[in-house]
Amino acid sequence: MRDPRELYELSGAPTYGAPALLALSGFMDAGQAAQMGAQHLIDTRPSRIIARFDVDQLVDHRSRRPIITFDKDHYTDYQPMELVVRVVTDEAGKDFLLFTGPEPDYQWERFCAAVAILLGELGSTLVVGLHGIPWGAPHTRPVGLTAHSMDPSLIQGYASMHDKIQLPSSVEALLEVRLPEAHIRTVGFSVHVPHYLAGAEFPAGSVRLLDSAADVAELSLAIPDLRSAADEYLRELDALVAQNPENAEAIGQMEAAYDKATAGRELSAPNTQPKVDEENLPSGEQLAAEFEQFLKDSGDGKGKGGGFSFGGAGDD
Fold first, then answer.
1. 219 secondary structure, DSSP code
2. Which of 203, 273, 282, 231 is nearest to 291 (CA)?
3. Which pLDDT score is estimated for 266?
4. Is the pLDDT of residue 112 over 90?
5. Which of 34, 108, 170, 210 could form a disulfide with 27 if both were Cys (CB 3.0 to 4.6 A apart)?
6. Which domains does the chain have, with CATH numbers?
7. Which residue, 179, 155, 145, is CA-closest to 22?
8. How much is the average pLDDT of 141-164?
């Protein structure tokens, strides 16, 4: 393996020992939960880029093509992808790291080694991974979360939602395996996004992720604007559903199935959330298509949705 340190350039440093949040794009992030949360932190908190990874070595540009502008008779304004580390300051003045950018297509082991070396240079001993997953639960019930870590102390109070299973990996999952080998604790949070909103923005999921990250990393993240946006989104979604009898009936069926699944169970919500059996769920694609059509029929493509998209799922 070539020297992993050649994959990044470090140009600054936060307070030594700052925890790190990981919100890479390209893998699963239902409801854009991690991406919206990360962008909100960048937009609302003091931050600066302190490290850049070499995306030419790590990313397949043909599968995720960067944007360029064609202006009348020439190309201009090429926008390269960036895989960067920012130092962000929370409300209490505490620094933390924020990894954003595309998940590497190549050199996963070397990238993980580079992250371990970089975190070692900065004295970071805790990494928190964030993303959203589609879940069989309605938006009218508490937003649930699955936590995973090799360190049981980091996930106390979170119930396991799965038995032992095999599934396609991600770089974030590999980091949860490799970083503890370098004595860096890791924990991942997967917020439960209603399956029919997997391809839409779901700010309530972003709130849930940031609250969980703040708790485990001991950060002060009030995020009042994001909370307000999440509340407004749910109100507008309820209004949209109420105007379409078919959607209202489908959501009602999900609520009944969800409530049946929780009856008589001790749930420490919002840290646990049951998953309704697939046969008891309306089709997520069908619901998403109906929401999208309703917005189109409203005239300007926004209607009661306030500009939120209910289109099909897709990673960037």
1. -
2. 282
3. 45
4. yes
5. 170
6. 4-223 (3.40.50.10900), 229-267+275-305 (no CATH)
7. 179
8. 88
